[in-house]
Batch of 4 targets.
Target 1
Amino acid sequence: MADWGLQYLWHQPEVSVVLSGMSKMEHVIENVKSANNSGINNLTQSELDTISDLRNAYKKYDVVPCTSCGYCMPCPQGVSIPTVMLILNELAYWGDPQSERWKLFYDRLAKTPEELEERRNSGEEAQGAPTLCIECGECLEKCPQQINIPIMMNKVKAIFEEGKQIENMLEE
């Protein structure tokens, strides 16, 4: 899937540089291979149609355009922002935040500063829930997708902590 995205970007005549987040040598090798197979106006109309179809399908279920790049991290309050964004997108796709699957996933997150500190002190790689967000805005300037992260944290809090319906939260 990443190769399709890179090919699409390199296909555009107005694009002169493509930046790709890479964390493993495997990613570097894949990106170099993709670059070697790329070029301006290199995609066929059929390939462009496929990309358009994929983009439309993805947009339908990708409520928050978070790529989990982690640039917003670390959150000074310990919120695991990419995890919370993943939960919101998965809920938009699968629905029902009260299902056992989502309750277990959300309940693994530390809800209070004390709980987060206690877990970390015990050696656990603890992640913080959106209840820890104080809307400081530090994440806003770091997010390359320009997501209003504090608003998204409030939406997830409302869904899990206040029992709001996900459909209503996504419309706001």
Note: The radius of gyration is 19 Å.
Target 2
Amino acid sequence: MVRRFSYLSHKVSVIILNWNGCEDTIECLTSLQKCDLRNIQVILIDNGSEDSSVEKVLAWANKSHVSTLDIDHKYAVNQETDFRCFHNSKLIIIKSKKNLGFAEGNNVGIRFALKVSKPDYLLLLNNDTVVDANFLKRLINAFTVFPNAGFAGPKVYYYDYFGQKNVIDSAGGKIDFWTGRAFNLMSRTIDQRDDEQYKIVDFIQGSCILLQVKVIQEIGLLDQQYFAYWEECDWCIRAKRKGYISVYVPTSMIWHKIAASNKGSKNIYWLIRNRFIFMKKNANTFQLVTFYIFFWLVHFWIQALGFLVKKETDKLSSYFKGLIEGQKIFFFRL
């Protein structure tokens, strides 16, 4: 986007979603300026924001001397649009009139990148992250070390964990198909920097995930039926079936603003619903049986009683709505 360095020759398209979060987005873009961005293009998808996000980001780009173009979603997907004018823009803003969700919002950016930018790598990056200057170079290096790598992800710190900046949120992820649980490794631990080796993991957290374009060509885009949550797990498992691995890169670092809103009632709906979608798509018969038994004997009671005790009726209602929809999909659809 701005500064010139020689060592990053690979072409990278960075896809960032924004929904009423222009301040976070601008901080994220500002941190990206410190990286080697000689051959990179940022594609910002505005998911129907109502806080003048696009205007504020355009003002920031103008002040920061970042070449920028903005386009409505309908033109971005139109095959007759002349895209030649976008090739030299370092920041492209695609404006959607509605919230497309994490999966389809990123898919819009991926399709546009493949059609216009033709990158070697795609980076999905949350707008509420701040990146280290060397994070991208070190992620790309992982693909040299592991030729069969499909995805690579950084060490993700909490942006602010009770005043601390060295508390880990994710060091890659693990999936337990027998219980239907997916969890971040080393979550809420203080980084001791005592193990800086690459690790092969089950999935890379969706806040920052780098992938080779050829992986998309083999496994397809994010599954839009998820809308939000579990889609990156599904992506990594689909790639694994094709022989690709997911690599955690501890020397690549970002900081993620883990918002309290992540545990809001709407998100609880998607989390429980999508768990059933993921398991139905990816688990074998024996794993599905043990998952279902575990869910009703353990998980359901812990979660539901927890909401009851705390008198969180909105969350309990969303939990049951997600559970009902998940059951319908689990038994009758997909």
Note: The chain is about 40% helix and 25% strand.
Target 3
Amino acid sequence: MGLFSFKNKKSVVVCPVNGEVLPITSSEDKVFAEKMMGDGFVVKPKSGEFFSPVNGKVSMVFETKHAIAFTTNDGFDVLVHIGMDTVKLNGEGYEVLVSAGDKVKIGQKIANVDLDVIRKKGYLTDTPVVITNLDGKEISLLKTGECNVSDEIINL
């Protein structure tokens, strides 16, 4: 390994929750499916334990706790949006374990979410993971189907 090999390191986006990974275009929400927010993937979670999908820092935790934004160590902005239209729950069923400004590592627990609360209120638990500042860069998914926390899904 050379002295300057760190320049070749790329950001990785991993699965933030155990579940099933699908292309973003399969999202039930047209804003995500049409990539209006950016490109990425959707996870159908099997568990309510969510973990950081990137190495970097928390840039924002939405007041309603349904979404957490991250900035990777090399400047990519990644949004984890837990559930569809779940902003309307005003945080019910969500316990967020991080705050804006916190440094995070892949696999660090960021939230506990009661998926049954989301379902009982009539919302989907589908969780888009979107890179919002690709600036035209194309991405491809390394894996779809069943995923475990920390499985690599995207190399940036």
Note: Residues 115-120 form the longest helix (6 residues).
Target 4
Amino acid sequence: MDALSTAETLLVLDCCERVVDAAAALAVELLERCPDLRVLTTTREPLDVPGEALCPVPPLSPEASRRLFIDRARAGRPDLHASEETVDRICRRLDGLPLAIELAAARLRSMTVEALAEGLEDRLGFLAGGNRLAPPHHRDLRGVVAWSWEPLTGVERAAAERLSVFPQAFTTRHAEYVGVRASTLYSLVDRSLVERDGDRYRMLDTIREYGNERLVENGGALEARDAHAACFLDLAERAEPHLRGPGQTAWQARLALDHDNLLASLGHLRDHGDRAKALRSGAVLGLFWAIRGDHATAVFHLRSLLDSPAAPGDVADELRPAVCAAYLLNATFAGALADARTVVGPPPKTSTPVGAFVAALLAMAESRTGEGRAVLEPHLDHPDPWTRGMLRLARAFLDGTSGDIARGADDVEHAVRAFRETGDHWGSSLLLMSLAYARSAVGDTEKATALLEEALELSRALGTHHGQRVWSAMAHIDAGATGRARELLEEVVADATSVRRVASARICLADLARYEGDLEKAGALLALVESAAGEKDPSETALYHSAAGHLAAATGDLDEARRHLRAAFALADAMPDLPMLAQVSVGTADVLRRGGAPERAARVMGAAHVVRGGPAPRHPDVVRLTHELSAHRVHYDRAARLSTEEALALLREEHGKPG
């Protein structure tokens, strides 16, 4: 005491959480008797003494995590080379915790960076048995967490275990749903086992994994997961009516906050025998994913749900058509209808509007458009405007695949009126975009541009404008408004967090670079897309092959161009996506012209006019090729008078021809 009171002094008390009461008493006594003393404590929970000022130490930032990992790894392996993406993935798995990062980096003396990243799927087991000379709570990752876990009271431990069922942030209401009182939650925040994030709370994944291990060992996992699943089924079902009307914006944003929790709930209901509840949840999430533009996500999870076996006479079967409808809606947008019958099975034996929607999209997937129209016809004047809008949307899909542009536009206009009546921004925006494509196809640029901006404004209000901006940019390109298209695409690349949307934007930017003659930049953009991680859906893959084929033709590599364009055509034909077939066919016409077959090129351009529903006279590729093939206009005009079926047959034959 005498030594500390003689001059200004800083005293550090480390790891106070294990002796917090004694540390608090010591700090108070020292500060009372030594006026020039300052005490700095490191602790997982505050001392709660007068004059205490808290300074939370968060996990390291991504950049700092990366630097620490590389520094520690090269201490053992000076020649280490690792991609930034892999290092970031490792550091994210370790929650940016410095000790965990050091433990992981030390493992690189005996394995590759890729093996380390894969091993961290089980981070607690994988990072066991570290430095023998370190204290137990610094020796391995499990020891680090156990050091903080052991001082908890029995109630706190049980609460922390139950909170481990939340894969993302949660509210006090959610916590109470799984049996954790708010007061206990606040205590876990004080002990640094749970972090507060605004009005929500979260566990670091490392702590959550440890808590989940304890929950399983103590036999409480099924009960806690049942409660978690019930909580988020309740949220989904409360959201459902609002997703079809003026509450759509607020409720889709609310569901987005709990996306991982909703997915975990759906998976638990599916895998643990409550099929009816799983189907109820899946139907709501399918509409939510459609609104968000997360079509590939919907296709993956709803397919898994529809694949789950049903017992004979299962009452849940009456809920299945709604999930089939959500699956087919998203599969249509994702270009994933090729195996729709395998996933969905035969059309439901019901005369309801939902059954008709399912039967119509199944018919579209199998090119039975007349049958699809017939099954929709009795329901088109349904009294509920949202239902009416969806049925008109289904018929517009059928019209589009059969090339009946005039009837398609009429159905779209009816659907827009119906969605506007309900206050559904998503449906209105989607269909205005479709009308814009139709107007740009016939050269009505002014009307197309106005429709695009109206659609974009609706999607911006809804918060789903990242995906819509890509579609809008593509329609602006069709209308010849390449400057506006570039603005939208660059916004997506700068703002969007979705890998798919950034990839689609870069593909379109590559086309813009090619129009301007910057083939090197176009190639670099497509290389970024090709190297990007993540599975691509058929629509994105077709878009990529189309752009790559056009670029290869521009560089003179006609064999490479044919390879890409045939791949794109096959994907678009399987969807079916007539605007994409037309876009690909323009590239094929370019290859034919450059290869010395201008008459065939002109016929392909004329057939593309038919399947597109118009000449698209302002699209940059169409403008250029129309000029270059002007001497062969008679062949274009003859093909442009074909029926849709005849034009498709011509294009299919052309894309199957060698050379």
Note: The first strand starts at residue 9 and ends at 13.
